[in-house]
Amino acid sequence: MKKRLLATLLVMVVTATVILTGCGNGGTDSSKSSSDTLTVMCVGTEADTYLGSYKQIAEEFSKENEFGVEVKIDFYENEQYKTKLTTLMASNAVPDVFFTWELSYLQPFVEGGKVADMTPYLEEDTEWRDQFSDGTLELLAYDGKNYGIPTQKSLCVMFYNKKIFADNGLSVPTTYKEFLQVCKTLKENGITPMTMCGTDAWIPAQFVQQIAGGMAGDQLFNDICEGKEQWNNETHVKAAEEVKKMADAGYFQDGYIGMGPEEARDLIMNGTAAMYFMGAWEADNIQNSDLGEDAGAFVLPAYDEQYNNISVGSVDTSFCVSENSKNKDAAVAFIKYWSSLEKEEMLLYDVGRIPADNFELDESKLTPLMTEILNISNSQVGLTPWWDRQFGAGEGVEFNNTCVSILGGEDASTAFDALQQFAEDNANR
Amino acid sequence: MNKVLGNKKSIAVFVLPAFIIYAVFVLIPIGYNVLISFFQTDLMSPSKFVGLKNYENLFHDKTFIGAMKNNILMVIGSLIAHLPLALLFGNILFQKIKGSHFFQTVFFLPSVICGVAVGLTWTFVYNSEFGLLNKLLELIGLGNLQQVWLADKNLALLCIIVVVMWQFVGYHMIIQLAAMRNIPESYYEAARIDGASKWVQFKAITFPLIKPILKVDAVLIITGSLKYYDLVAVMTGGGPNHATELMSTYMFYQGFRTLKYGYSAGIGVILLIMCICSVLLSNFIFRTETIEY
């Protein structure tokens, strides 16, 4: 009896050893390599044209750097990335360098002490610090300390099809009335004026935000951020109703409310729709499509002319260093390498990513579309970050949802009252 | 061997590995989940003890109440499709009609496909521009019934429930069919000699004898649809404007998107309580003595 028990125990011990050593091997492998590998995590999918350039930067840094580290860069789709990063944060397993959005997205991680303070590195190399455009570093600073480095800038523009405009005798609108007139003419001529995606709530929401900015300027944005103005202010209601009116007039394609972002984008790229309101990051996809040279961009004229050139926009593709990183110096060097003039120029000329720095640029190397977009970018007097970046997944995402539900038929003032109620409830959750 | 298994210590040795795994991956997380539901925490900054405040807030949260209602609709929809309807299909195939094995496989097929693939397929079916459903409506002259199915907040949830019904009806049919096949043929023979109709045979023999299995099945259906996640996450992501949010998708949203882990843990606890209550309820409704043939 005892022998049998012993035998069973023995079998169990053997099995357990096999299983445990199996795990153990994996563990030692990763710890050995972590000293000379710099892990980087970034947002992107194979469909993004910039992915190749990002990988190239990582490869070149691996060859050239003085720390002898090899960069291992991983890309994840947007939603996957958010889930992955929050999980890694909670379990203290964040890679050395990680992609981040600015403002409220990074804030909890900074407050949780997971992000390395970059201020000393910026102060040590003032030339590096001063290359960034005014106000861009501040979007990633908390309590006066810098935690993230922006590598790009982005803003919303109205892409348009020059050929359709010429065929219909239209020119780029300079006032809001003219813009509505352009939509009306196109609609009457049987062309879809604008393409819009309704399934991803942030896309209609950025359009509402842009129009609201044109009604009340960036003062409205700042007042809401400081809590001086409520979410259900009349400008928001009016702006959302304005977009709803466009939808009812048929200025968006049929069935836009159920269309995904790629489907909607295809309509501008294949010449079905005349205009597309989207972040400048789509420029490269659009100029590489069938549209090619016919692609143009303009800034949406403000509803109230005194607020012209206030756009939805912010920094983009910012990077942070993990507080737990064993290779902080190499990690900072990698970000510095990425934001160098040479690399930023490559990203701009090859894949249309606007640098977050005030470099002197060689305009002759730009594509016509990128020239137009850079002109827009330089002429903006105010940029208001997307609500879901300013307020994150709480009020920001709910603002997006509110805009979609208004387009779906809900009364605008009821919907914004509900958003205000949410904001008050959410404060103590 | 019997001697070994008769010894309580050796039973413990055999059960222990499974129990440890169960404890580490199920019991301890449940306990930890209940614990953090009393805190306001993002799992990074210091947590703040708030007592029952998360629960109090939950019951004032319109989205959560909406999600709970959606879950209840999901339970009702699944119960309709997976008990009476599956029973009907099962009973038809039980009659040894021609090709019953073929139909059995066909009905069962959707439940072996993974939920994400099913979700994506149906997203295409429901697509407003090139979707099968809208094209079909147009073809049969009902073009005015065309809808933006998944983007309409009044229709989206119903659309998803239909898919859930379709996906699992075969699964529950198989469970019930297996129970029916266990009933000795002699019972039916005797009934036929006495001149009992098919309906009477079902009412007096089949139904009472498969009742214990129906109980298990009902528990599976109810808990399954309370914690349902994948189709909603794939097809609508809880949108438009939280109209198709379920408790599980809302829990994910509050946890991994807004980093309110305490609040999200509270949703988890309520889900757990609802599951336990529904199991107790269905045990009460289907209470029956065990049957031996």
Automatic annotation (TrEMBL), chain A:
| Pfam families found in the cross-reference section | SBP_bac_1
Keyword Zinc-finger included in the entry's annotation? no
Secretion signal span: 1-20
Q: Which domain of life is it from?
A: Bacteria
Q: Which UniProt keywords apply?
A: Signal
Q: Could you confirm whether the keyword Transcription appears in this record?
A: no
Any idea what this protein is called?
Extracellular solute-binding protein
From TrEMBL, chain B:
Claim: Transport is one of the keywords in the record: yes
Cell location: Cell membrane
Q: Which residue intervals define the domain ABC transmembrane type-1 in the entry?
A: 68-282
Q: Which InterPro entries does the record match to this protein?
A: ABC_transporter_permease, MetI-like, MetI-like_sf
Which topology term describes how it sits in the membrane? Multi-pass membrane protein
Entries under PROSITE patterns matching the protein: ABC_TM1
Principal localisation: membrane
SUPFAM superfamilies annotated for this entry? MetI-like
From the record, give the transmembrane residue ranges: 12-39, 72-94, 106-126, 155-174, 261-286
Keyword annotations of the record: Cell membrane, Membrane, Transmembrane, Transmembrane helix, Transport
- Which Pfam families does the annotation name? BPD_transp_1
The entry sums up its family as follows: Belongs to the binding-protein-dependent transport system permease family.
What is the protein name given in its UniProt record?
Sugar ABC transporter permease
Phylogenetic classification of the source organism: Bacteria, Bacillati, Bacillota, Clostridia, Lachnospirales
